[in-house]
């Protein structure tokens, strides 16, 4: 097998004194030439983490649902074998563009991208046409297990997942993200006071809500699943509901008119936090089953609620030991309290939470 090789058009370079190569590899070759070391061996003898198979279906669905509009970042791999690089003859001496030849008996170990590899394998099985697309691959020469482990650590050391808010802002495929952006645009108090990039608000920020909190609350309001479509009627209903809520929140209006500092409201009140928005979304899901005039009348009761953190009724619900909680139980118990103040009945599940709380 040493007499045979896989050859790729590639660019040659140097990182930390070591040669490296960048090539475009057809997706159909990924399962044939790239090895994922998934054997049951101790972590100290592996150069990769164990494959998390729960991540694979989402990537596979992404590829299959967007065959003409997907984006895959490159794979980083180490070659355990001798390679040869032949510069292009018509580009002059010292040229770093040419052909990279990798012996077929060489092991090519993925340092970064093993989940993409497995997803590509499964996606091609269902849609072979994807196999003719390409993915960039960064090749290094394998310097042994220690070096491969260090490469894995270095590649993942500075990886930072983007905030939910900025992911919502930039995701134009997700119907719930589109809903959140529409709601923020059409609800005046949201349009002026929403943090669009971060999922948490700093003490000095003039913002009051986060885009991710509005998305989650609107999802609960319309009882939508992750992949459920959102119609124009759904969008209109969400805007009407949040406008009605805002009309009955006098502190929100004061913040909108800049008559009170948002940082003071966040410090002193419950209604300035995502737990309240999420609770209101779940309450709205029950209200929207009724005629608009009726649920608008019910929401007027929000004006009479004491939203102050100093109100001991919030302890154990929206707060634990004086600190705001985002836990599922906090959302339900906060919603229970708001429902009680609005004269709304609790569902059996909500009643169970209430009995446990008491």
From TrEMBL:
One Pfam family here: DndB
What InterPro entries does its record include? DGQHR-contain_dom, DNA_S_mod_DndB
The cross-references to CDD domains, in alphabetical order and at most eight, read: dndB (cd16412)
Official protein name in the record: DNA sulfur modification protein DndB
Organism from which the protein derives: Kushneria marisflavi
Q: What is the lineage of its organism?
A: Bacteria, Pseudomonadati, Pseudomonadota, Gammaproteobacteria, Oceanospirillales
């Amino acid at each position: 097998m040493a007499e045979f090789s896989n050859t790729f058009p590639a660019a040659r370079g140097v990182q930390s004194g070591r040669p490296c190569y960048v090539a475009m590899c057809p997706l159909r070759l990924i399962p044939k030439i790239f090895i994922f070391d998934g054997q049951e061996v101790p972590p100290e003898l592996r150069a990769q983490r164990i494959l998390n198979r729960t991540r694979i279906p989402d990537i596979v669905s992404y590829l299959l649902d967007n065959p003409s509009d997907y984006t895959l970042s490159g794979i980083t791999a180490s070659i355990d074998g001798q390679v040869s690089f032949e510069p292009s003859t018509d580009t002059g001496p010292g040229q770093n563009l040419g052909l990279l030849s990798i012996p077929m008996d060489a092991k090519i170990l993925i340092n970064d991208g093993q989940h993409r590899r497995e997803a590509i394998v499964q996606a091609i099985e269902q849609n072979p046409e994807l196999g003719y697309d390409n993915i960039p691959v960064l090749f290094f020469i394998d310097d042994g297990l220690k070096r491969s482990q260090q490469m894995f650590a270095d590649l993942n050391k500075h990886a930072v997942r983007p905030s939910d808010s900025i992911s919502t802002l930039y995701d134009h495929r997700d119907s719930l993200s589109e809903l959140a952006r529409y709601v923020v645009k059409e609800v005046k108090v949201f349009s002026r006071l929403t943090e669009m990039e971060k999922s948490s608000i700093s003490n000095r920020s003039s913002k009051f809500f986060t885009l991710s909190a509005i998305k989650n609350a609107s999802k609960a309001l319309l009882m939508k699943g992750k992949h459920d479509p959102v119609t124009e009627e759904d969008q209109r209903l969400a805007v009407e509901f949040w406008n009605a809520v805002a009309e009955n929140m006098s502190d929100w209006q004061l913040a909108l008119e800049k008559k009170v500092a948002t940082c003071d409201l966040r410090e002193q009140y419950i209604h300035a936090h995502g737990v309240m928005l999420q609770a209101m979304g779940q309450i709205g899901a029950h209200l929207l089953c009724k005629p608009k005039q009726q649920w608008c009348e019910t929401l007027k009761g929000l004006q009479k609620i004491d939203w102050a953190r100093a109100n001991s009724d919030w302890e154990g619900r929206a707060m634990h030991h004086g600190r705001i909680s985002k836990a599922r139980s906090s959302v339900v118990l906060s919603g229970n309290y708001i429902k009680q103040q609005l004269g709304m009945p609790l569902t059996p599940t909500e009643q169970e939470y209430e009995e446990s709380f008491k």
